[in-house]
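Progress report, Aim 2. The chain analyzed during this reporting quarter is listed below.
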Amino acid sequence: MVDVRIKNIEESDADTLLSEDMSFQGTMSLSRPAMIKGQLAGKIESDSNVFIEKEADVKADIKANELSVKGNLSGSVQAAVIELGSSAVFSGDVKAQSLAMESGCTFSGTSQIGAEPKSDAPEAAEEAPAQNEE
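Predicted C-alpha cells for the chain:
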C-alpha cells in the first residue's frame, strides 16, 4: 500500500482567509488561493486553489482548480485535484482528475475520477430527403 502525504499549506500561501472566528453564508467567487478555517455555508467558485483546514466546518458546493480538505466538508465538489487529509470528514459527491486520500480520513459519497467520459455514440446520421410518392 502506498503512503499518501497531503502537503502542508501556510496561511501565507492563501490570498483569502476565512479565520476560525468567522462564518460566511453565500457564494464566494475567487481567482486566487483561499484558506477556510471558520464556518461556511453556500457555494465556492474558484479559478485557483481552496484549502479547508482542520478547524473548518463547510457545507458548500465547490468548484476549484485544486481542493485540499483537512476539516469537515459536505457538498458536491469538482476540481482537477482533490486531497483529503487524515483529519478530513467528507460527505458528498466528488468529480476530479485526481483524488488522494490519507489513511484516517472519512469519505461518504460518490466519486468520478479521471478523464471526462467520452461518448461512444456515433454522430447522428443525416436524414435523407423525403421521397414524394406519386
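Residues 11-113 form one domain. The beta strands are 16-18, 23-30, 34-36, 39-46, 49-52, 57-69, 72-84, 89-101, 106-113. These observations will guide the mutagenesis work planned for the next reporting period.
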